[in-house]
Design goal:
The chain is α/β, with parallel strands linked by helices and about 300 residues long. It has two domains: about 240 residues, Alpha-Beta Barrel (TIM Barrel), CATH 3.20.20.70; about 50 residues, Alpha-Beta Plaits (2-Layer Sandwich). Helix content is about 30%, strand content about 25%. The protein has eleven helices and 13 strands. The longest helix is centred in the middle third of the chain and has 13 residues. The chain starts with a strand and ends in an 8-residue tail after the last strand.
């Protein structure tokens, strides 16, 4: 079984309990304007190019089979219309100026990397999280990988945004110990403008997940001027607080780490976003906490006044 993976992040502490390895799958059914992993949106392989890291060694020009790397008198450029994203340049670039985003891996390839840190998982109560992009779009591969992880006694988590047919997620619940479910906003117009759909399917699948009794957590990226209102955050908390299998609700203040990645892919953000100010985030957290059993957030990540 082959899947398209764009990163294996070891020693992660932000994607479920304990120390974890997070496997990032390529392809997404949302189009979040603030995406912090823009290389995950498209299913096909891509090349990230950071001109400021280039040391002018010329290896990429030598190995590129289609001549996509062009070195001029003043700058080194990547002709993306010509580039086939074969990855040869990335494999030769020791300076980190060229990186492959997306590679075909078998379940055995991924599992081989995961089990290297099995002692850390067991000592910390951690395990493996499959994220993306939207990992459920590669449900067959993800299911086989999760099943293999459980066979090795590893705790499994799935980070998903819910925009797909319910049957895809339902078919994975038997091999997932914890679902991390992203909810961006409740208002359909806000959701359509910033995520690319009205959120109806996401809300329906959230209701199905909550009604299934399967352990799950909800996470919301909090973005100033988009969803940082009591109506949005309190509304989400009020809905998910009714489900007995909810383990926690986490507010994630916006960060701009995806902007450099977006530029490296030859794309640019249509809008600029910011995290809410600390006191505002704390007020939103207090509102949410009145509805959910366990509210988590980090005010240290919020923009300071």
């Amino acid at each position: 079984m082959i899947g398209t993976v764009f990163n294996l992040q070891r020693f992660s502490t932000a994607d479920g309990p304990g120390v974890r390895t997070t496997v990032f799958m390529k392809g997404c059914s949302n189009q979040c304007a603030w995406c912090h992993n823009p290389e995950s949106i498209r299913r096909e392989a891509e090349i990230r190019f950071y001109p400021d890291r280039c040391i002018g060694c010329g290896r990429c020009l030598q190995v590129c089979p289609v001549g996509a790397h062009v070195s001029g008198a003043e700058a080194h450029n990547l002709d993306r219309a010509t580039c086939t994203a074969c990855g040869l340049c990335a494999s030769e670039c020791f300076a980190g100026a060229v990186e492959a985003a997306g590679t075909s891996m078998s379940v055995e390839d991924v599992l081989r990397e995961i089990v290297k840190d099995a002692p850390y998982y067991r000592h910390s109560g951690g395990g493996v999280t499959i994220s993306g992009g939207e990992p459920v779009l590669q449900a067959e591969f993800v299911g086989e990988l999760l099943r293999a992880c459980q066979y090795h006694g590893l705790h499994t988590a799935l980070d998903t945004a819910g925009h797909y047919a319910w049957s895809l997620l339902d078919g994975l619940l038997d091999v997932v110990d914890l679902v991390l479910y992203d909810v961006k906003a409740l208002d359909p117009d806000t959701h359509l403008r910033y995520v690319g759909n009205d959120g109806r399917l996401i809300r329906e699948n959230l209701h199905r997940l909550g009604g299934s009794g399967h352990p799950f957590a909800v996470r919301t990226p909090v973005i100033a001027g988009v969803n940082d209102t009591e109506a949005e955050i309190g509304g989400i908390a009020r809905i998910i607080g009714q489900y007995s299998s909810l383990t926690y609700y986490e507010l994630l203040p916006y960060h701009a780490l995806g902007n450099a990645k977006l530029q490296s892919l030859g794309r640019h953000a249509a809008e600029r976003f910011a995290a809410p100010e600390r006191h505002h985030l704390e007020n939103l957290a207090a509102t949410a906490e009145s509805f959910v059993p366990d509210l988590r957030y980090s005010s240290s990540l919020a923009r300071q006044t």
